[in-house]
Structures are given as structure tokens and as C-alpha cells.
Amino acid sequence: MSGTARRARELSENFVNQGHHVSVVTSFPRKFRSMPGINCSKDEVFNGVRVYRVKNIFEVKKNVLFRLFSYLFFIIQSLKLALKLADNVDIVISIAPISSGILGSFVQLIKKKHHHFDVPDILPDLGISAGMIKNKLIIKFLYKLEIWVYDHSNTISAITYGQIDNIHKKGVAQEKLSYIPDWIDNLFFKKNVSKYKSEVNSNFNFQGKKLISFIGNIGALQNPDIFLDLMVLLAEENHHDLQFLFIGDGIMLPHLKVKAKKLQLNNVTFVGRVKREYIPAYMNLSDVLVANYLPNDYMEICIPGKLFEYAISEKPIVMGARGEAKNLIDKYSLGLTVAPSDVNEFKKAIIQITNGSYNYKPKTDKFIQDFSLRKIAGLYNNIFQKVN
Fold it and tell me: Residue 191 sits in which domain range?
């Protein structure tokens, strides 16, 4: 259910549909990042994609050392399998974090295969921005590791031009770099809205309420505490017709539940993890979709994956963001942007939308045209042409 997992799955299935043979090396999904009730096997074929999974004994929470050990353990377990599979492949694609990039780099180094490093998130910059990595020695080591992976990648792609500039400034040649943004599968969205709309609506009894929804990974980068603070302000100002839904899971969810209980917030509901097929129906149920980033310079070159599905839901978005995410929302008239993590600006934007004073006219068709799965996945053909 993470953005990286969705990216890997949809790319892999699209490559299979183009006639390619695809194998994926990954780990078993963590509980709070997996589909409810899903059962995964060590070795299986899923929608034409051969999937190999390794077990990881480290549970990744907020502890940085456990996270690093988890990544290291994945590399150790997967390396032999990756090298064996490499005998019969033409290109190895690794998707950030760095652990996957290291695996791909070893294959490039040992088996001389073309390694493409796909970078939806830049590490360690992302971990530093989230406040999760603070030790200067660890930061210095991770930066050296990042450059080593870039050096052992034949080609590299990033999802925003700001990220490409970030990587280029670290000494990576411009000819190695390409822009492959995130995408949306509008057919998946339309199919599942109609299929699950009635079922999702029947799960709630929010008659007369306007729903504000946060959907996706609930992590530190999103600074989700501000949404609880937002609902406190709205309740104090007697906006009792507004209800907030947290739909998803993540490392911040237990903390949020404790805080909401302490604040006695009756206007916040924790829906938890839901099957991915239900997500379009939950978006359709909502009146406003929200997202947020921490206020720091690195986040200005990022765009959250959830923004793409938010966009085709044709529900107004309110996001705390500057830079690339703000530009995307403004360009396609998807909603309102406010200063990152500014509770008072969020409050003003939510009220403006829910009281009907905001004139919402999204350019959805243009957005779908520019970011369809078929179009963006097709950019990989430029990468494939570089494979010897």
C-alpha cells in the first residue's frame, strides 16, 4: 500500500502487458503497509509478474537504527537471489530507498547488467527532512552510499524536475538523468468508484456531515498532528458539521489515536487500512481531500503520490505545500494550497470550500491526459533503448 509498492506493481504489470518478462525481488509486506487480509507467498506469479519475497526479522518503526538494519538485512538476503536472476535479464530496475539501489548496483557491478535507479524519494535527504536521521556520522555515511549507488547506475530517473536538479548537483551527469513522474490509472478509479460506492457509503452514518479525508500513509513527513489541531479549532468555532477521516495506516497512527482520545475529539474517525479497490469510493464519499508536508526546503521538490489519485477524484484538495506540489495543484486548478503545517491557513481553506465560496473547476481531463499510466510508463521505452 506504500507509494513505492504501488509504483513497482503498476510498472511491472504494464511491462508485462507490453510483452516483457518481469521478475520482482521484494520483502514480505509489513502489517501496517499491506492490504487487509492479504496472504503473500515466498514465490508466486501475480498478474503475469514473477514475485520473489524475503522475510525480514526487523520491524521498521520510527527507530532509525532498526530501519537501517532492516534495509541491510534485505540486501544480504536478496543479493544471492538477485545475482542468480540477473543471468537471464537485460535490465535491472531498482526503486528507492537506497537498499534497493544497492542491490541493483551490485548486480551492475558483478553481472555487468544495465541498472536503472528509479528515485521517487531521495535518501538520505528525505529522512533528514523528516527528522528521523540526525546523527552526523550516519548522515555522512548515507550520503557516500547514495553517491556510490548513483555511480553504479547506468541511468537514473526522478519524479520531479527539482529532484533531478538535486541529484545533478551531487555530481551526477545530466545525460544519466531522466524525468519519469508519478501517474494515475483513471480506469482503475472509475471502475472501483461505481463498484464499491454503495458498500463504502453504508459503512458510515455521517448524515448532514461534510467529510474531510486524509488517505494514504500516515507518516512523519506529513506532520499529521496538524489535522487533529485543525479539528480542535473547527470544533471551538462551532463547525460541528465537519468530520475528519484518517484512512490508512503508518508509524504515526498509534500516536494520533492516543492524542485524539486525550483531546476527546468526536469529529475525528480512524478508518484504518482498507483494500486499495475501496480507495476511489472513499475519495468519492469525501467533500475535501487533504495532504500536508513538513515545512522545509527539501519537501519543495517533492510531490506525494496520493496527489495524483486525489486529482482524478474531482474533489477539492487542500494541501500544505510549496514548490512542486503547489505548482501542480495550481496548474490544474485542483484546489487550494496553504503554508506547510499552518493550522490556521488550513482552517480558512476548509471553511472556504465547505461553505461553498470556493469556485472549484478542476482541469481533470488535462491532468489525465498528462499523467496517464500508459503515457508515463511509455517513458521507460527511452530507458530500454539504452540497454545494450
Answer: 186-371
pTM: 0.90
Pairing of strands 210-215, 288-292: parallel
Judge if 204 and 142 occupy the same domain. no
d(CA 211, CA 93): 40
In this structure, the answer to whether residues 197 and 245 fall within a common structural domain is yes
135 & 197 share domain: no
**Distance from CA of residue 188 to its chain's centroid?**
17
Identify the CATH number of the domain in which residue 83 sits: 3.40.50.2000
Q: Are residues 178 and 190 in the same domain?
A: no
Q: Are residues 78 and 206 in the same domain?
A: no
State pLDDT tens for residues 1-55. Answer: 577 888 999 999 999 999 999 999 998 877 656 666 677 889 999 999 999 998 8
- For residue 63, pLDDT beyond 70: no
211 and 290 within one domain: yes
Question: Given a cut of 70, is residue 311 above it in pLDDT?
Answer: yes
How far CA 11 is from CA of 14, 113, 154, 381, 386, in Å, comes to: 5, 20, 19, 12, 18
- Residues contacting residue 163 through CB under 8 Å, at least 6 positions apart: 119, 122, 301, 302
Are 199 and 132 members of one domain? no
Beta strands 49-54 and 43-46 are: antiparallel
The single-letter DSSP state of residue 300 is: G
| Model pLDDT for residues 343-378, shown as the tens digit of each residue | 999 999 999 999 999 999 999 999 999 999 889 988
Pairwise CA distance, residues 113 & 120, whole Å: 22
User: Could you give the angle at which helices 98-111 and 136-151 cross, rounded to 10 degrees?
Assistant: 40
* 379 and 352 within one domain: no
